[in-house]
Design goal:
The protein starts with a helix and ends with a helix. By secondary structure, the protein is an all-alpha fold. Among the domains are: about 30-55; about 340-425, Serine Threonine Protein Phosphatase 5, Tetratricopeptide repeat (Alpha Horseshoe), CATH 1.25.40.10. Helices cover about 80% and strands about 5% of the residues.
């Protein structure tokens, strides 16, 4: 369509010129005493147009001639810029391909070229960022080659270049700081890595990449509480799936509880956990086992275990068998080591659960153990024998036979006690 319009305009111009020039009888008279010169108006217009074209061409040619030095400088600058970008691309491609020596050499060449341009007053507008990125690539290559001195030298140069610059250069600086922290973590220098992470601006420190790195560093340093707080932030940022976040939180909470050394510290750590974390069966069981191992208040541990107990006795419970066994054994050990246990509340819970699910061998066993500690010998023997017909765990069967043996000894039934001990040894 555009070409058609141009063609119509050209055709109209040709028609206009033909109409004007074809019948134009005008003349231009030039008086130059004692001469008189008469010229056709068409000729005068044609000469003026030709003179204009020649003058314009001459001026354009002169301007191009005078602009050759500037054009040459611009060409050299574009050529140097292409060389720098090509060197940076070579460094990145060699680095991703694992050719660290070649990548380091290409990055260092970019630094040399940029410095040469700066000395020649031909510095690029983005030369500082380009040089900082080249230093970062060279440092990355040196880190891969285990050249820590070269790595630190390039990192310091990159940080110096990005000190107090604009926003774009500041982003490069933040990237260098994150990489330096990661290198310290790779070197297993926990203190240096934590120091580098603490030096990050607040906004950068809350980014997912920085939080992931902080999680690794704090776990390596054994700072499980700080690692737990970091995982909570990562969970809010959706850095992990829900199941992965739950698994990591569970592991850190267990490690945190396992590292306590007295009941007071254990209670403090338990209070620092969130409600959802305290409701995890593995975490509650670890807290109860640790409280029992430290000789603390088992009644308090029983309160911590109530959510797990509710999951155990709930109809259609999906609590894994391993956790069921841990809960039953933990309650049994607590009844054995704590005077006055089980109390009336727990005895009522156990009896209600056993009556509500009479085919569950674990509940029958626990009810038998509770009756045994309350010196209800007959009922304890009945429940333990009923549980033995369905118990599949060998360790629990041995404990049930051992309990029956002690009950027989209590009744002074030597034959029954010997048979029970024999069955316990067989299992």
């Amino acid at each position: 369509m555009r070409h058609l319009l141009w063609f119509l305009a050209l055709f109209a111009l040709a028609v206009g010129v033909a109409l004007f020039a074809g019948n134009n009888q005008g003349t231009v008279t030039l008086f130059w005493p004692p001469y008189r010169l008469d010229f056709s108006l068409n000729l005068v217009l044609l000469v003026l147009f030709a003179a204009f074209v020649l003058l314009y061409a001459a001026l354009r040619g002169l301007a191009m001639l005078l602009g050759l030095p500037d054009e040459a400088r611009r060409w050299r600058r574009r050529h140097q810029e292409r060389m720098q970008l090509q060197g940076l691309l070579d460094a990145m491609s060699h680095l991703t391909a694992g050719r660290f020596i070649r990548a380091r050499k290409a990055a260092e060449n970019v630094v040399v070229q940029t410095e040469a341009l700066a000395r020649g007053e031909q510095a690029l507008g983005h030369g500082t960022r380009l040089m900082a990125l080249a230093h970062l690539l060279a440092a990355e290559c040196a880190h891969a080659l285990q050249d820590r001195a070269g790595r630190d030298e390039h990192a310091r140069a990159a940080l110096a270049l990005t000190q107090g610059k604009g926003r774009e250069t500041q982003e490069v600086r933040e990237g260098v700081q994150l990489r330096v922290a990661r290198w310290a973590f790779d070197d297993r220098d926990v203190q240096a890595a934590l120091q580098r992470l603490d030096e990050l601006p607040q906004g950068v420190a809350r980014r997912t990449l920085a939080l992931r790195l902080r999680l690794r560093v704090t776990r390596l340093a054994g700072q499980f509480l700080a690692a737990l707080e970091t995982v909570r932030l990562l969970g809010k940022h959706r850095a992990f799936s829900e199941s992965a976040t739950r698994s990591i939180v569970r592991g850190l909470a267990i490690e945190l509880l396992r590292g306590t050394h007295d009941p007071a510290q254990l209670r403090k750590v338990w209070e620092q956990l969130e409600a959802a974390e305290r409701g995890m069966p593995e975490v509650a069981l670890q807290a109860g086992e640790r409280m029992l191992a430290l000789g603390g208040d088992f009644a308090l541990a029983q309160q911590w275990l109530l959510p797990v107990w509710d999951q155990l006795v709930r109809p259609g419970s999906t609590l894994p068998q391993e956790l069921r066994l841990r809960l039953v054994l933990l309650l049994e050990r607590g009844f054995h080591h704590t005077p006055g246990q089980p109390d009336a509340a727990w005895l009522a819970r156990i009896e209600a659960a056993q009556l509500g699910n009479p085919r569950e061998p674990l509940l029958q066993y626990l009810a038998g153990v509770a009756c045994m500690h309350l010196q209800l010998w007959g009922k304890a023997q009945q429940l333990l024998r009923q549980a033995l017909t369905q118990l599949k765990d060998e360790a629990l069967r041995r404990r049930a036979w051992a309990a029956l043996a002690r009950l027989a000894e209590q009744r002074e039934d030597a034959a029954a006690a010997l048979e029970a001990w024999r069955e316990a040894a067989r299992d």
